[in-house]
Amino acid sequence: MSETHQKTTRGELAKRQLLEAACEIFGKNGPDAATTRQIAQAAQQNIAAIAYYFGSKEGLYLAVAQHIADLIRLDFEPTVVILDEFLERPNPAEHLPLLQTLITDSFLQYARLVLDKENIHLSRIMAREQLVPTEAYSLIHQQALSPLLTRVNKLLALYIGLDPSLPTTMLHTHAILGEVLSFRLVRETILRQTGWDRIGKNEYQIISNTLKTHITLLLNGLREIYTNPHHA
Fold first, then answer.
1. Is 183's pLDDT higher than 80?
2. Which of 2, 72, 111, 206 could form a disulfide with 144 if both were Cys (CB 3.0 to 4.6 A apart)?
3. Are 174 and 150 within 8 A, CB to CB?
4. Which domains, from first to last, does the chain contain?
């Protein structure tokens, strides 16, 4: 192995270790309270490596945001292809059972992503960014969330019979998303109320079934309201 390749390999390893440590520290402490010293120690790297690879703590935080965006985009890449193919069909609103399945599965996939214990630090960062948004959230939203939610919003609009550009339609989409996210945001409350000691495979299946039932009820209820003139 050449010396140049060895240096590149060590450099990529150091960057990855710093990024992983930054996800954990930023997730626990937030971007303001987290320090470069804490991150460097957690990564077992020299503190100067942060400036060398990322420029500053702010640069490292944006790199974490990019990591989150890439994770979401990669996870949903196959789904986005399927959604686009469906939306390109002639008269996609005529395929109601498939339309409902695509909407439900998209939300359940997002639930799996945010409930995965390996993504807990990323979920914390995203939750904090909702309350105190920074440039990092703009990056995550533009590159990962907006492309996905725009497509799901179009599907929901087709199902319930509304224009996808209406704020009402978008709010219905985000209301369902909010129910999905609630299982991440109130995780501790759920554990205490149910008596569970963790959310493992079996517990997630119960949550998934519950969400599927709720999403189905919401979709059918909204369709009844907006397509039945007696309920307009």
1. yes
2. 72
3. no
4. 1-55 (1.10.10.60), 66-231 (1.10.357.10)
CB 61 within 8 A of CB 129: no
Radius of gyration of the chain (CA): 21
| Cα distances (Å, whole numbers) of residue 155 to 68, 80, 96, 103, 172 | 25, 12, 10, 7, 12
Write down the pTM of the prediction. Answer: 0.89
Q: How does pLDDT run across 157-178, given as a tens digit for each residue?
A: 999 999 999 999 999 999 999 9
Task: Yes or no: say if 208 and 107 are a contact pair by the CB < 8 Å rule.
Answer: no
User: Which residue is listed with tokens 């240096």?
Assistant: 7
Distance CA 17, CA 189 (A): 32
104 pLDDT tier (thresholds 50, 70, 90): very high
Q: Quick one: average pLDDT of 87-116? A: 94
Q: Across all residues in the chain, what is the average pLDDT?
A: 92
CA 130 – CA 213 distance, rounded (Å): 27
